[in-house]
Design brief:
The complex is a heterodimer. Chain A has a 5-stranded antiparallel sheet with strand order 7-6-5-2-8. Chain A has a two-stranded antiparallel sheet with strand order 3-4. Chain A has 8 helices and 8 strands; from the N terminus they run H-H-E-H-H-H-H-H-H-E-E-E-E-E-E-E. Chain B folds into 4 domains: about 100 residues, Immunoglobulin-like; about 140 residues; about 110 residues, Sandwich (Immunoglobulin-like); about 110 residues, Up-down Bundle (Four Helix Bundle (Hemerythrin (Met), subunit A)). In chain B, strands 21, 23, 24, 25, 26, 28 and 29 form a 7-stranded mixed sheet that branches. In chain B, strands 11, 12, 14, 15 and 16 form a 5-stranded antiparallel sheet that branches. The chains are: A alpha+beta, B alpha+beta. Chains A and B meet through helix 1, strand 1, helix 3, helix 4 and helix 5 of A and strand 27, strand 31, strand 33 and helix 3 of B. Strand 1 of chain A pairs antiparallel with strand 33 of chain B.
């Protein structure tokens, strides 16, 4: 009975996959016929089925770009990059989409040690770091036992050195995993969807305007209060923006 | 009755006007305003002789002289002109306003009446009955007036000031110049040029005057509250008639210099309403339209195009800023060129102002020019209005691409790194790997922690196991016992199972012993007798006692088939067999 249900579930999931593929191909055909709005509807219906992929987000970004929807196209390209940070096509088309934006914000460059650290942390995601640390621990345990039980001193020496090295690797990657998770938690990017939004000094309408943002600009959300979000730009300027004007990239 | 009277008067007037060509009967006073110590002369003049002259009741006046009658009869160019005058000299009784009522006369059987005349009697004057001097006459007959179109305009609403010089028919102006040009502080002002002075006829305080428009100015108040208009001051030369006449009977004129000013006026400027004031309001008041256009919508990179923002209409065009153009930061935009095409007339400024931006795209792609909104205050509806332009897309067809080569986790970096290899907008992807949107992170899951820490537990475990093993290897006596146990288990297993069942037990035991010997001593089953076993075991240096024990067990096995055997004996035999086997195994060389 159990095997039967598993088999059934497998069949079902395959069915679901094939349905998504069918929708995806239909949407692609619509896109190629320049029916971008219909294509977007189809793509989004796949998203509603709680399945996603880099390619889906990439295609959504493309279709929105063709319709001159600045903010949605940048939003979906960024989504695609979240799943696959080094996709060349996505980076290329994102550059096209970012040409449409109005705001030019300087980036405060990170220098010295913190930049090196960040680069190292960002080479893998936290799960990969975790897997590396587990592999390191396994190697360490095996080699340590080898060291413990082997009789010849040369063997002992090699096993000891390698085991200590792998232990260090394991510890380092755990630290990196924690670091990466912390960065991920802090990293809460959002895209400005309103055509023009006034960023205020305090989270209320009457307060002073600090600066203005335009559609498609990427910002970091620091905290939320009522209907307002505290945001930070890449040049480190800070302000409060109405929540309805932005869309957060992390949906989970 | 009164109505009837009025109607009859009306008819009478009509009738007199019809026949006025023939008959004229008028009352003339020497002055309409006099001091109480002055005298007044009133003449009733007619151009045809009449009868039954009835003077009015001079109420409020004393008749000090008259009636004097004078008749003049003259012929000129064969035409006769006749006039007869009754004159009275009157002295006012008190100050105030009096009306000299109608006088009547019958001419050719018709009754004619004069118009009533009102006389103003004022306080006593210094020079009673003196001829007024020229300056007084001038000041009475020359007036400079500033006419303001609206006394309480909104801020930045156009108002006009027209300066008119009124001159009465009796006097003339021979020369004028502006002595002080009014400055309009807190106003934006513009003079409207007047080509030539045009003499027009008009009324000033109900009397016939001629007037000249000297100056027209359009003003835009720039401040709210009560603002004062400085007066215009003119230095004029007035020609005033004197009582003397030249030989042709024309009055001689004297020239009097005079300074006239238009009284200063105060204008109350209302502020624009604060309510519903749009945030992008920059002070435009009037009626406007907005146009945003580009010269091209498609072009190649590094070519240029012009974007023009034009505000046209009526209002304070020169007094507000045109909304700024915002374009994507990746477009190169130069400072705008400002153009004004504004005419000013009495209604205010009209025309258009525009800013022209030159834009040079650097990279391929589409660039939207966002909508531009422009707010103004509409004076007709007294409300704010907003016009919004359409969004324009600039499509750059060819050129280098801007590629963003930042990694996504650390925000976006330099926008305009050029990548010459991929200069097209990439096509969509046609195949997809689906993953679930809700994924559980592996890091920090229980699986992760157990995989990370359990390997460490294996270290002490392995060490302990190894230690146990070493200990056992070191324990020789124990090892022997364990070995024998193992032997017994190996060979006597079947026998042990059959323990209790006599036949089966001994068969198994015998078979086990034979098997043991076969395995250890390589003896064939065919030559298997006790003697041979004994010699072989002895050759292998097994103790005599042990050999005897072994043999005795074998004998027991044979014997047991025919004799009753108890459970206890069976157990003894089994133990003995086990012990013997292990002893043999130990001593075997």
């Amino acid at each position: 009975m159990k095997t039967f249900t598993i088999l059934f579930l497998c069949c079902f999931s395959v069915l679901g996959f094939s349905q998504n593929n069918q929708l995806f191909e239909e949407a692609n055909a619509l896109y190629n016929d320049s029916k971008y709005a219909e294509a977007i509807d189809k793509y989004e219906s796949i998203l509603n089925g709680s399945k996603h992929s880099t390619e889906l987000y990439f295609n959504l970004g493309n279709a929105n770009y063709k319709l001159n929807n600045i903010a949605p196209s940048i939003y979906y390209f960024e989504k695609a990059l979240q799943l696959n940070p080094n996709d060349k096509d996505t980076l290329n088309n994102l550059a096209f989409a970012q040409n449409m934006t109005i705001d030019a914000i300087d980036k405060v460059p990170e220098v010295g040690f913190s930049r090196i650290l960040k680069n190292v942390v960002n080479t893998f995601n936290s799960d990969t770091w975790a897997k590396i640390s587990i592999a390191g621990v396994f190697v360490f345990v095996l080699l340590f036992l080898m060291y413990h039980f082997s009789y010849t001193s040369s063997k002992k020496r090699i096993a000891f050195v390698i085991s200590v090295f792998s232990l260090i690797v394991a510890c380092f990657s755990i630290a990196m995993a924690f670091q990466k998770e912390g960065l991920n938690k802090k990293d809460n990017p959002a895209i400005v969807f309103a055509q023009e939004s006034r960023v205020k000094a305090d989270p209320n309408q009457t307060s002073e305007e600090v600066f203005r943002l335009h559609e498609g600009t990427k910002i970091q959300v620091l905290e939320a209060y009522e209907d307002w979000n505290k945001i930070q730009l890449s040049d480190n300027s800070i302000g409060w923006i109405p929540s309805k004007d932005i869309k957060v990239l992390k949906s989970f | 009755m009164k109505a009837l009277k009025q109607i009859s008067i009306l008819f009478l007037i009509l009738a007199t006007s019809i026949v006025s060509a023939q008959v004229k009967f008028e009352a003339k006073v020497s002055k309409k305003k006099l001091g109480i110590n002055e005298r007044l002369r009133i003449d009733f003049e007619m151009n045809k002789d009449g009868d039954n002259f009835v003077p009015p009741n001079f109420k409020g006046f004393d008749v000090v002289g008259g009636p004097n009658t004078s008749v003049s009869n003259s012929w000129a160019n064969g035409k006769r002109s006749y006039s007869k005058t009754y004159s009275y000299f009157l002295s006012p009784q008190k100050r105030g306003k009096f009306t000299i009522k109608q006088a009547t006369i019958e001419i050719d059987g018709e009754t004619y009446k004069t118009f009533p005349i009102s006389i103003n009697v004022t306080a006593a004057v210094d020079k009673p009955n003196a001829n007024p001097d020229a300056a007084d006459i001038a000041s009475d007959n020359i007036h400079l007036v500033a006419e303001v179109s609206k006394g309480n305009p909104y801020l930045n609403e156009a108002i006009t000031v027209v300066y008119k010089l009124y001159v009465s028919p009796e006097t003339g102006v021979s020369n004028w110049r502006e002595k002080d040009n009014p400055r309009f502080n807190d106003f934006w002002s513009q003079n409207i040029e007047i080509k030539g002075l045009n003499i027009q006829k008009g009324l000033y305080k109900g009397e016939d005057y001629r007037y000249v428009i000297l100056r027209k100015t359009v003003l835009y108040p720039q401040k709210t509250g009560k603002l004062k208009l400085e007066p215009l001051v003119l230095d004029i030369t007035v020609e005033v008639p004197t009582n003397r006449y030249d030989i042709f009977g024309r009055p001689l004129m004297t020239k009097v210099p005079k300074i006239v000013t238009a009284g200063s006026r105060t204008i109350d400027v209302k502020p624009l309403p604060v309510q519903n004031k749009p945030s992008d309001f920059k002070g435009a008041v009037g009626d406007f339209s907005l146009k945003v256009s580009t010269t091209k919508s498609q072009l190649n990179a590094t070519e240029s195009l012009q974007a023009k923002i034009q505000v046209s209409g009526r209002g304070n065009l020169k007094l507000f800023e045109i909304p700024k153009l915002t374009v994507p930061s990746s477009l190169e935009v130069y400072e705008p060129e400002h153009k004004e095409n504004v005419r000013t007339n009495l209604n205010g400024m009209q025309g258009s102002i525009s800013d022209t931006y030159t834009i040079v795209p650097q990279y391929k792609g589409k660039y939207p020019v966002p909508t531009i909104s422009f707010s103004y205050f509409d004076l007709k509806t007294e409300s704010y209005k907003r016009i919004t332009s359409d969004e324009i897309i600039i499509d750059v067809l060819q050129g280098p691409t801007a590629v963003n080569n930042s990694d996504n986790t650390t925000a976006s970096s330099a926008k305009q790194a050029v990548n010459p290899n991929t200069n097209t907008f990439a096509f969509i992807k046609t195949a997809s790997n689906w993953t679930s949107i809700s994924t559980k992170p592996f890091f920090k899951s229980t699986g992760f922690w157990s995989l990370l820490l359990l390997p460490f537990l294996t270290i002490p475990l392995a060490i302990v196991i190894r230690k146990k093993k070493d200990e056992r290897d070191a324990d020789i006596q124990g090892n022997r016992i364990r070995k024998a146990d193992r032997l017994a288990k190996k060979y006597l297993g079947a026998a042990k199972k059959a323990l209790g069942k006599k036949e089966a037990f001994y068969l198994a035991l015998e078979k086990a012993l034979h098997n043991y010997l076969k395995a250890k001593l390589n003896i064939e089953t065919s030559d298997f007798n006790k003697e041979k076993i004994e010699t072989i075991l002895k050759d292998r240096q097994v103790d005599h006692d042990v050999v005897l024990d072994f043999i005795s067990i074998l004998e027991n096995c044979e014997l047991a088939r025919y004799t009753p055997i108890t459970q206890v004996t069976m157990q003894n035999d089994y133990d003995k067999a086990a012990k013997t086997i292990s002893l043999i195994d130990k001593q075997l060389r």
